[in-house]
Amino acid sequence: MLRIEDSAGVRTVTLDRPERRNALTPAMLDDLAAAVSDPPEPVVYLRGAGSAFCAGADLDAVADVAAATTTDGDTTDGDTTDTDPAAAFAEHGQRTARAIADSSAVVLAGIDGAARGGGVELALACDLRVATDAATFAETGVTFGLFGAWGGTVRLPRIVGEGNAMDLTLSGRAVDADEALRMGLVSRVVEDPATVARELADNDHAALERVKPLLRSRGSDDDRETAEAGVFADLVARNADALRRD
After folding, report:
1. Whole-model pTM?
2. Which run of H or of E encompasses 10?
3. Tally of structural domains, the chain
4. Which InterPro entries does the UniProt record give (predicted)?
5. Looking at the structure, do residues 128 and 234 belong to the same domain, yes or no?
6. CA 123 from centre of chain
7. Do residues 137 and 54 both lie within one domain?
8. Which of 11, 51, 54, 220 counts the most CB atoms within 10 A of its CB?
């Protein structure tokens, strides 16, 4: 259900369930986390097979979670603390999203078609989101009594601002690629996102690996600037011969 290809600095990870619009099963979440953890290439390109990027969580998996939970919120075995199936399901997706965000590689989501719910949330965890004209995005959870719990309430406001995040999450409406670009949900709209992945891979691989965590850091400004200076010094030393003028 996942296809992985390594070539010329890019690991291409394809969600490969086109008959289910690449809906994510628990096994796919685990495989995706493994695929982005310490990959052999400096860039990971995440895409979907067929006409959709990702429809979100597999509805059969969601139904299994609901079946394991009683109407008052208790689990069917009476344990509401460590083994709550709904909380465990959310945490499972969160772990995969964190694996994407924490990957040593630069992770680019190429959205060509529909991204819904958990598919949007996995894209939010990526370092870059690049769309085609066919891309659409929606956090549809509220339309059936849920919301995006794979880190969506954390990352979406950070990326598009609180107002846009409120609009998308509370309305459940879909936005096209142009509107997604205007609100900062994607950084580019191109014909083929794979070209952007190859463009990234043409850059210095050590610089890519070192600058990503600086941009991801949530520490204080002083600590981030100190880290920035240290990384810059390391890269200058590494590239001293190439940088030195005759």
Report:
1. 0.91
2. strand 10-15
3. 2
4. ClpP/crotonase-like_dom_sf (IPR029045), Enoyl-CoA_hyd/isom_CS (IPR018376), Enoyl-CoA_hydra/iso (IPR001753)
5. no
6. 3
7. yes
8. 54
| Cα–Cα dist 206/236, whole Å | 11
Do residues 215 and 112 both lie within one domain? no
Model pLDDT, residue 81 = 44
| Angle separating helix axes 205-216 and 221-238, nearest 10 degrees | 180
Confidence at residue 79, expressed as pLDDT on a 0 to 100 scale: 45
Residue 157 sits in the same domain as residue 214:
no
**Domain of 140: which CATH number?**
3.90.226.10
CA distance 113 to 119: 11
Q: For strands 136-138 and 114-116, give the pairing.
A: parallel
Q: Are residues 105 and 218 in the same domain?
A: no
Are 128 and 219 in a shared domain?
no
The pLDDT value recorded for residue 232 is: 93
Do the beta carbons of residue 36 and residue 108 sit within 8 Å? no
Question: Do residues 150 and 118 touch, judged by C-beta distance below 8 A?
Answer: yes
pLDDT at 78: 45
Note down the domain range covering 218.
Answer: 205-243
Tell me phi and psi for residue 125, to 5 degrees: -75, -20
Same domain, 164 and 192: yes
Q: Are 176 and 135 in contact (CB under 8 A)?
A: yes
E strand or H helix at 39: none
Cα 79 from Cα 191, distance rounded (Å): 50
The answer for 133, left when phi > 0, alpha when psi is -120 to 50, beta otherwise, is alpha
